[in-house]
Task: inverse folding
């Protein structure tokens, strides 16, 4: 099997037998000993838009954070293009939830976007003209270039989201994890984001998106992950996003899993 | 440096400390860890006492003065016990679910209490000054070597902050993203805290346990008011820190009194003033000035903006009222009796007279005995305002489903703030749904009866 990866600068990299973009093996995540995600197994091919869907508290954000190594795994491991995650971190980009940072922080829009280039820069080296250019280009892509010198507090919610997206673009990653990029944005921003996702897919990149609006899942995503503390269903949206699977995902929590998790937290056997 | 007098040496020393505190304070404040310095300082007290005991025991000269002891050994003791304090807080939070504020309170007072007990005992057996020195600071005892240590500390702090500026910025702003990008955020956090700890410990004998935290927080908090850029905030914080430290020392030493020719602090008994408190008060003065007078973020600037907006709203209302009065006779500009305006709005006659006089000076209207007439500019202005008002009303009625008798007041609040770009979008939206007159120059009708509101 031969496939082509188009980098953002137009280079086309040919490689043989590309392994799946992301493989998650038997991943369990626990907070304070209480499991919040059980035995997740996933194999996601390259160049797909993947929606992560499930009720509140289903562990959508936790899934992303676990893959990115932001929360410890109780068991299991993650592979990116067939190699352990730690070695492939430079291939992965991240858009955290907008509420996760203090928007009153004294930085400009451009400063934030340049942070996307810090991973490539490495220790001590400062961002220079090249990084500035990259950041400005990424801002252009989300139509935020005129705001480059603004303090980030002065932006609307949708604009802040675009800034986070631009920062992720500056990472120039192969695989993106986006935590609710559509939350609290206006219709124009939503359309812009969708277009951007499609562009990324066109370049052979894989994008995971935590998503809340069930109406648009079919329209936006190639694959869907239905999550509720464990993997309820995963596969191409067409076949997987069925009423039956949705019912299994949203039809109340699995009380047995809940109680077992609670018992593990308390370290007491289930009576 | 050998040419320096005692007073100059002390001032140089405190200024160096102030600069270093300003630098580490910037990141502590932004990372929302400003209380770590406070905790470290208070928790260091028992360590100082224990270090003193150990040195004394080893040297078998129990009656020596605390200040004569090697600063380094005492600082090491302070650092160790400060870190034990922080570890205790972390342990309480993670393992017992005690909330962080409660844990800090408990650990801080316990360590502080233990330190005071130990140092008081030592003081009775030893000689003067021990406890006092570490509670309020005693820079007069600063030696040449101590100033050198402060130079080194400042240099190390500045070097780290300059070299790791990018990393510190990233971790302070978005630690999650930093970790996902592969940065060892724990190590970076610990190095920021480590620098904070070093500055705190070195500062203890100079400004004292109780006030050290303020020295770290004040310059950074003040600097934040003046700028929206991290780099500038850092530089300002360093400048504020060293300036207030130098200033505070100057006041305490009595040099200020010599220069002024009188002593503003000449009341009560003329006991020797430790500079710690005056340094903090100088820092507070800088903070207060920043709080009130900083452009854009300061209270004064915000008040000015508020007053300007209120005034604009008043003018807008007068112009719109005049426009609506003139509207039936357009394109002629009729002379309108001011008395009819008084009825229309909640204005008193005096308010209105003042408003009209100001509007006349701006060239928006002409007043002739009891009547006013809009000028051409005034009419244009009034038309623009009325239009924004009605567009917004239409939008509220049409698309936000707000009852007609409510819209006028809602529109009143918002319309003065609507950006031009938003008004254009409103227009497009409303004309697309056929709610606007087809000719662009004609104003849309008001959705409610004119003059029947706000009585």
Result:
């Amino acid at each position: 099997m031969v496939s082509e990866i188009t980098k953002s600068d137009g280079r086309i990299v040919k490689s043989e037998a590309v392994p799946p973009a992301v493989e998650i093996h038997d991943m369990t995540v626990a907070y304070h000993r209480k499991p919040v995600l059980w035995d997740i197994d996933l194999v996601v091919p390259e160049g797909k838009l993947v929606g992560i869907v499930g009720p509140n508290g289903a562990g959508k954000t936790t899934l992303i954070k676990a893959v990115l190594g932001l929360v410890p795994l109780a068991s299991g491991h993650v592979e990116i293009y067939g190699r352990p995650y730690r070695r492939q971190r430079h291939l992965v980009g991240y858009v955290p939830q907008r509420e996760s940072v203090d928007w009153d922080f004294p930085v400009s829009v451009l400063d934030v976007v340049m942070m996307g280039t810090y991973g490539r820069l490495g220790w001590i080296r400062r961002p220079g003209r090249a990084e500035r250019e990259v950041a400005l280009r990424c801002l252009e892509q989300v139509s935020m270039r005129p705001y480059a010198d603004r303090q980030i507090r002065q932006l609307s919610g949708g604009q802040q989201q675009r800034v986070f997206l631009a920062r992720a673009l500056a990472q120039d990653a192969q695989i993106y994890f986006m935590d609710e990029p559509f939350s609290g944005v206006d219709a124009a921003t939503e359309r812009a984001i969708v277009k951007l996702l499609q562009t990324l897919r066109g370049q052979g990149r894989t994008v995971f998106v935590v998503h809340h609006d069930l109406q648009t899942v079919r329209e936006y995503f190639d694959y869907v992950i239905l999550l509720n503390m464990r993997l309820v269903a995963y596969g191409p949206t067409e076949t997987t996003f069925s009423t039956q699977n949705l019912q299994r995902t949203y039809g109340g929590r699995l009380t047995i899993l809940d109680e077992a998790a609670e018992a593990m937290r308390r370290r007491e056997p289930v009576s | 440096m050998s040419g320096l007098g005692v007073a100059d040496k002390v001032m140089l020393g405190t200024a160096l400390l102030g600069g270093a505190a300003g630098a580490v304070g910037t990141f502590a404040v932004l990372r929302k860890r400003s209380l770590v310095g406070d905790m470290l300082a208070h928790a260091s007290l028992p360590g100082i006492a224990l270090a003193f005991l150990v040195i004394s025991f080893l040297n078998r000269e129990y009656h020596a003065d605390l200040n004569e002891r090697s600063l380094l050994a005492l600082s090491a003791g302070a650092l160790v016990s400060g870190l034990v304090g922080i570890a205790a807080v972390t342990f309480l939070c993670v393992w017992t679910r005690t909330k962080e504020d409660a844990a800090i309170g408990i650990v801080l007072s316990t360590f502080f209490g233990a330190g005071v007990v130990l140092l008081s005992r030592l003081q009775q057996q030893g000689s003067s000054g021990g406890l006092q020195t570490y509670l309020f600071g005693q820079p007069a005892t600063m030696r040449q070597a101590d100033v050198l240590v402060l130079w080194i500390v400042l240099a190390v702090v500045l070097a780290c902050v300059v070299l790791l500026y990018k990393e510190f910025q990233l971790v302070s702003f978005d630690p999650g993203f930093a970790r996902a990008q592969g940065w060892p955020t724990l190590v970076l956090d610990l190095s920021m805290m480590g620098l904070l700890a070093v500055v705190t410990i070195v500062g203890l004998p100079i400004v004292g346990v109780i006030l050290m935290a303020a020295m770290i927080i004040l310059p950074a908090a003040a600097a934040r008011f003046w700028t929206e850029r991290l780099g500038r905030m850092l530089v300002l914080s360093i400048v504020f820190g060293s300036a207030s430290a130098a200033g505070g020392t100057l006041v305490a030493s009595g040099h200020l009194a010599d220069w002024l020719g009188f002593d503003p602090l000449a009341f009560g008994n003329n006991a020797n003033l430790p500079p710690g408190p005056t340094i903090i008060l100088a820092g507070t003065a800088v903070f207060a000035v920043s709080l009130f007078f900083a452009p854009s973020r300061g209270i004064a600037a915000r008040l000015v903006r508020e007053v300007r907006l209120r005034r604009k709203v008043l003018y807008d209302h007068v112009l719109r009222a005049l426009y609506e009065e003139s509207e039936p006779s357009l394109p002629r500009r009729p002379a309108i009796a001011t008395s009819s305006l008084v009825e229309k709005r909640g204005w008193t006659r005096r308010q209105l007279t003042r408003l009209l006089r100001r509007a006349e000076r701006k060239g928006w209207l002409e007043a002739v005995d009891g009547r006013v007439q809009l000028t051409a500019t005034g009419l244009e202005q009034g038309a623009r305002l009325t239009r924004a008002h009605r567009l917004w009303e239409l939008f509220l009625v049409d698309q936000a489903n707000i009852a007609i008798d409510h819209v006028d007041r809602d529109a009143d609040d918002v319309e003065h703030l609507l950006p031009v770009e938003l008004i254009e979008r409103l227009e497009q939206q409303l004309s697309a749904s056929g709610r606007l007159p087809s000719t662009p120059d004609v104003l849309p009708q008001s959705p409610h009866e004119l003059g029947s509101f706000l009585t």
